[in-house]
Here is the input.
Amino acid sequence: MRFYSVSSYWVVLLLVLVVKAGPIEARVAIASAHPLATQAGFEMIEQGGNVFDAAVAVSAALAVVEPAGSGLGGGGFWLLHDAEKNNSIMLDGREKAPLAARTDMFLDEQGNFNPQASKNGALAAGIPGLAAALVHLSERYGRLSLEVCLQPAIRYARQGFEIGPRHQKLLRFRLRALQKNPTAARVLLDHGKIPAVGYVLHQPELARTLELLAQKGRAGFYQGEVAAKLLASVKRGGGIWTQQDLDQYQVVERAPIQGEYRGIKITSAALPSSGGIVLTESLNILSAFPLAQFDAVTRIHVVAEAMRRAYHDRALYLGDSDFVDAPVARLLNPDYAAGRRQNIRLDRALPSAYLSETGFEADAGKHTTHFSIIDDKGNRVAATLSVNFPFGAAFMAEGTGVLLNDEMDDFVARPGTQNGYGLIGGAANAIAPGKRMLSSMTPTFLQDESRVAVLGTPGGSRIISMVLLATLDFAAGYGPDSWVNVPRFHHQYIPDQIQYEKGGLTDDEIVGLKALGHRLKEKGYRYGNMQAVQWNLKTGRLTAASDPRGEGLARVR
Ligand code: GLY
Here is the structure.
């Protein structure tokens, strides 16, 4: 008897220790750009919620604690997988152009582009989708009520949270624009100046807006008190929103882009994001190259050549599929990739001018946010959310705490004119009333015979190349810690150069790539903020990793 009881005691103790240590009973893995957002997700799991409840809580919490990246005034894409139904969908909560928007709305009478107007202030803002997406996600997929899922965000907004160095750095980046908007300055700045790290940011008006959303669902945001305040502020700020815009805003469930690379199933964002298409086309082009056998220089060269071609197609063909007939099937066809691959030479870079006469230029910022969640049944969420530039349009609607996005800048204001990130496109991404602007956000699932991965990152046009590099790292057998650490380089057709993050290429790689004819541009910083989780199908083990470049938190519980 005694023997059995002691033994049972040790068995129980051992089980408890194993459980605490990790894999056996680790039910959910969450990685997000802010520890409080990750914590909000786990709060839902602890209350009996599922990964979709956690996704609602994380999204709402990020809107409060990382206002530079996303928010109720913005939108995003939630890639969802319901394991029981074995079904993946993309929830499209992307902003839409207001109904009064016009193709030439950012051009003056001489036809000159006014880049300030599409980036700062109320005219830059598309109709937000985040609030509608949270309601949809909660009602359609969650187990808990929306009210419960929004509680952590409401708490963070009302009780405040300490700002970190990243928040402070992004405030500095947008300081002048924020100072021009008295409401944003009052809420986000400390007497008009950058607050110190550790400053407690209280957002009582945002807490009230979240409470109304929690109580009334979409009517709490798109109608009534909040809607009236949004519309009044937008009007005063020179914007063009109407109640009809808010009433008509709808999220859309879309079929994700599906691809395959060396036995790995790719599931990623569909239009109006270019992410999944550019990612899959790049991988299709790369699939015929023995990357693992190449030396580092040849490997980077070939990957950059694939990026060059896929980004070229992005610029030429892609826009909101509700408005334009984008040739998606052709771009994803392996035969098309074979054609694109034909003029890739191992001994020489092909100048972008040889692909087309059109000039394109691009850069990428530190905006947007991503989080990844998976449970040990395989239910999962990859969500990339954005207000575009850090702190969006730097315009807060009075009395709401809602910072408006500046996603209108993701449209092509005029063919041949660069947007805020230097991107140029064609008619497919021209402004039209009610249209969604082309995105680069790339929330992605990867699956091979033994692993399921959920990943994504912020980073403007470089989002897609970052997810591509992480996918190649997954294909090489590495795990989340490695994907988020991979040194980053990027080619997007024009400028005709390989951009790389600070320290992203070795001296030998730089010499070798120059010898192949590549122009190189080192960025003065490390970029991206990847959040990734993995479920090992053979061991059941969950793992999670948060990009060391950011201040996020990845945990398994
Ligand atoms: N606003 C960034 C993107 O959607 O690509």
Confidence is low (pLDDT under 50) at residues 1-26, 357-365. The domain at 258-365+442-538 is CATH 1.10.246.130 (Serum Albumin; Chain A, Domain 1). The two ends are 35 Å apart (CA to CA). Residues 104 and 111 are 8 Å apart (CA to CA).
